[in-house]
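[Discussion] Sanity-checking designs against the backbone

I'm trying to build intuition for which residues belong where. Below is a structure token string of 842 positions. I'd appreciate it if someone posts a full sequence so I can compare it with mine line by line.
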């Protein structure tokens, strides 16, 4: 039988029963009837609240998963926008990127020796935040770094990605966050975008059970309070978490999940909560709380599950009693009228309730099937009308959200395979395309060409004119490339920076070379940037399938190697891959890779060659010399790896390792000496291209180890004085202002201007060992050495001779007022232990 029929029949029988029972037992029966109504109301209210709690949890989980996927999309965009090393990322860059991607914050997590910490973040609270004590969160991070699927049974797991559940932020417990964590091996950090507060809690605020519970207490007379209890934590001490210097209670550990708890009777309520979970039935007790007689009912929900909860209803007991008294007084007069009204209005009421409910149920079913955007036409101002409006709003928002999600997915799909600056396909696309083209070429026995193009002098233009102009130039170059290759149906992609990859098919090798030469000429034409004409060249390397390789990655690498060979031979030319030339280049690549790892691991060693006052025999300082022992190549000469470090941009990082190690070691030695020693560290001319970074790194090392600047000397070569003169002078003046001494190494071998020597803040000249070696036993061939000594004295500069190996060289230098020397006559470069023994003896 339908509810529409049940309601009028039920009301009619109830009224008839009341009329018949109008006797001496009327009061007791009426009281029992009201109590039954109360119990039914408790059951209905509990059912509504539990329904809202379950709907809120399911809806929140659905929206939370959608948010998790959005955060993964944001993670991929972040990965594509950031360099692979966290050292190259700034917190300001993360703030800007978070604003662009419409996430609250972005944190980068770095794996250390015994922890995983926040290394960079747009949220200051996240920086240096450890995660060792986070339980399954830390397990998830470990699995991400191992590139294994996350299986902690919480949150959302996708490829290279895990989204943690909504929770209080341990770095800043004033906030509630939803996090995403992405790591695909292309970076040395986990990408962690997250949304905060309103972005993640808005759904519960709008559609969660709290609103419905508040409306119930407002509209159901006598219901003073509705509470959803957490049985595990209610009545117990707060389950406080202590992490990162903060203390807080997790959302899941809150004793009250929803509603209010103003009518407190904790001890007794705890007993009833435990009791109803065991009995699985509603239990009620009467009590006077806050000066008011109340009934408290406890309804168990999902008592047999892992996460049961209990709904508590606090009811005004006086309303029941007052209702009984009023009913008894008015019954005789109103009973007959009421009976007639019940018969009429029960049908009207039944129809008014069931019809809109049927409409709402039908619409909710449509939403469940994904049919968003429809409207319920229900002109009511009661709870059903509000519910209909909320369902309509939910339908509209879900439609808007799914439409926007579809658009964002299409955009992400485009961005995943295209370069955002030139809109050309990117490396990922070209690899996928090359794989398909190789398959077709193998089936049809055809030649396939891979062309790797690099723009000559682009870095110089980018550094001198700024990245904005550099981006404009890259866009113009990409248009030239497309224009030049349009007739040939080539696949063109931007590899990154100023590098492009081009795939050609259905042409022989001679045609490919000719087309590539024409392309270089086309790219070579001048470009108009503002008021300036810019000239660039292009170096191209070509590898052919199947002649050079049948492997996709090898074809790209071979073309890249050929391009470097073209650059090495002057640039602005085409070079076809040659296996013989490739071997020497691969050795260079091997050294670069090993050196990069040695710098990262700080496995480079430092040797110290003492500086001796030959008159007194005392050691006054030492020159720090880098040493590298590679696992396969053994001891690698600095003459081999220093130029590679300069060419590949590793020289600054190499300098910082040597600087920090030598300062730290010299401070330890000086702590045991009456007269402290100085240490000198060599600086490459290349480092003055970024003089700010050079000065900042020296200051940071001095501050880190609290090392006196007066005990540090920076050695520069004469070539550094000739290149980037303005930047060099500015850097030397800043270093001198810190108290750091400056010496010119290998003096006399270059072409230094005496004017520059007087202008620059130089403290010492070092006579190159070639001039010391020329000094004969009879003190012949001493002209250059004597001239340098007299020049230094006239300019009031210090003087030191290096490469002293013979006694007669020492005697000449002492005689000519140059007592400070270095060389094998005194000491070879020494390791830490050997140097310690020497200063202990001296």
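Best answer:
Here's mine. Compare freely.
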């Amino acid at each position: 039988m339908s509810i529409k029929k049940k309601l009028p029949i039920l009301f009619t029988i109830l009224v008839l029963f009341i009329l018949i029972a109008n006797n001496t037992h009327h009061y007791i029966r009426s009281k029992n009837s009201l109590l039954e109504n109360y119990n039914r109301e408790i059951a209905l209210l509990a059912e509504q609240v539990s329904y809202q709690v379950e709907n809120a949890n399911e809806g929140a989980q659905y929206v939370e998963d959608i948010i998790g996927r959005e955060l993964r999309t944001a993670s991929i965009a972040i990965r594509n926008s950031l360099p692979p090393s966290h050292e190259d990322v700034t917190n300001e860059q993360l703030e800007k990127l978070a604003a662009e991607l419409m996430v609250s914050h972005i944190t980068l997590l770095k794996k250390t020796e015994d922890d995983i910490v926040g290394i960079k973040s747009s949220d200051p609270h996240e920086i240096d935040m450890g995660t060792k004590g986070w339980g399954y969160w830390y397990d998830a991070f470990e699995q991400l770094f191992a590139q294994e699927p996350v299986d902690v049974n919480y949150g959302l797991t996708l490829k290279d990605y895990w989204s943690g559940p909504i929770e209080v932020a341990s770095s800043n417990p004033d906030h509630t966050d939803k996090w995403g964590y992405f790591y695909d091996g292309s970076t040395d950090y986990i990408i962690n975008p997250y949304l905060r507060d309103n972005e993640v809690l808005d759904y519960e605020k709008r559609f969660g059970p709290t609103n419905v519970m508040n409306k119930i207490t407002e509209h159901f007379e006598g219901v003073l309070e509705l509470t959803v209890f957490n049985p595990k934590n209610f009545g117990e001490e707060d389950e406080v978490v202590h992490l990162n210097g903060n203390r807080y209670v997790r959302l899941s550990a809150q004793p009250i999940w929803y509603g209010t708890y103003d009518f407190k009777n904790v001890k007794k309520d705890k007993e009833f909560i435990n009791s109803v979970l065991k009995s699985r039935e509603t239990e009620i007790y009467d009590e006077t709380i806050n000066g008011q007689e109340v009934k408290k009912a406890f309804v168990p929900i999902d008592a047999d599950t892992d996460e049961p909860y209990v709904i508590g209803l606090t009811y005004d007991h006086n309303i029941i009693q007052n209702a009984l008294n009023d009913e008894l007084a008015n019954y005789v007069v109103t009973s007959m009228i009421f009976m007639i009204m019940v018969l009429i209005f029960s049908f009207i009421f039944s129809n008014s309730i069931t019809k809109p409910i049927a409409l709402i149920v039908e619409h909710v079913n449509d939403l469940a099937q994904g049919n968003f955007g429809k409207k319920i036409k229900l002109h009511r101002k009661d709870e059903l009308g509000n519910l209909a409006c909320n369902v309509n709003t939910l339908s509209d928002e879900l439609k808007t959200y799914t439409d926007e999600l579809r658009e964002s997915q299409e955009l992400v799909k485009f961005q995943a395979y295209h370069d955002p600056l030139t809109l050309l396909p990117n490396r990922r696309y070209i690899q996928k395309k090359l794989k398909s083209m190789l398959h077709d070429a193998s089936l049809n026995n055809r030649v396939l060409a891979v062309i790797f193009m690099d723009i000559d002098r682009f870095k110089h233009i980018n550094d001198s004119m700024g990245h904005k102009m550099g981006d404009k130039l890259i866009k113009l170059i990409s248009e030239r490339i497309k224009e030049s290759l349009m007739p040939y149906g080539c696949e063109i992609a931007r590899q990154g920076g100023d590098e492009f990859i081009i795939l050609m098919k259905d042409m022989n090798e001679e045609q490919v070379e000719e087309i590539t030469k024409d392309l270089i000429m086309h790219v070579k034409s001048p470009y108009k940037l503002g008021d300036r004409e810019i000239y660039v060249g292009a170096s191209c390397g070509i590898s052919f399938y199947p002649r050079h390789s049948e492997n996709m990655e090898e074809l790209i690498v071979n073309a890249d190697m050929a391009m470097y060979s073209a650059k090495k031979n002057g640039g602005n030319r085409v070079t076809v891959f040659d296996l013989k030339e490739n071997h020497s280049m691969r050795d260079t690549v091997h050294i670069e890779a090993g050196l990069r790892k040695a710098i990262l691991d700080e496995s480079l060693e430092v040797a110290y060659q003492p500086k001796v006052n030959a008159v007194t025999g005392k050691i006054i300082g030492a020159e720090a010399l880098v040493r590298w022992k590679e696992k396969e190549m053994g001891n690698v000469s600095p003459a081999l790896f220093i130029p590679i470090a300069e060419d590949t941009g590793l020289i600054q990082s190499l300098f910082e390792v040597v600087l920090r190690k030598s300062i730290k070691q010299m401070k330890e030695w000086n702590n045991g000496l009456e007269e402290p020693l100085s240490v000198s560290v060599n600086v490459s001319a290349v480092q003055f291209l970024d003089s700010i970074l050079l000065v900042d790194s020296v200051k940071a090392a001095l501050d880190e180890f609290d090392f006196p600047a007066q005990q540090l000397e920076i050695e520069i070569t004469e070539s550094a004085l000739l290149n980037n003169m303005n930047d060099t002078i500015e850097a030397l003046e800043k270093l001198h202002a810190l108290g750091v001494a400056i010496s010119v190494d290998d003096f006399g071998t270059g072409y230094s201007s005496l004017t520059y020597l007087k202008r620059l803040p130089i403290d010492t000249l070092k006579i190159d060992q070639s001039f010391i070696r020329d000094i004969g036993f009879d003190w012949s061939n001493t002209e250059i050495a004597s001239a340098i000594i007299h020049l230094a004295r006239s300019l009031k500069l210090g003087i030191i001779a290096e490469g002293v190996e013979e006694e007669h060289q020492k005697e000449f230098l002492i005689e000519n007022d140059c007592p400070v020397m270095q060389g094998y006559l005194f000491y070879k470069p020494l390791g830490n232990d050997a140097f310690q023994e020497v200063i202990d003896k001296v």
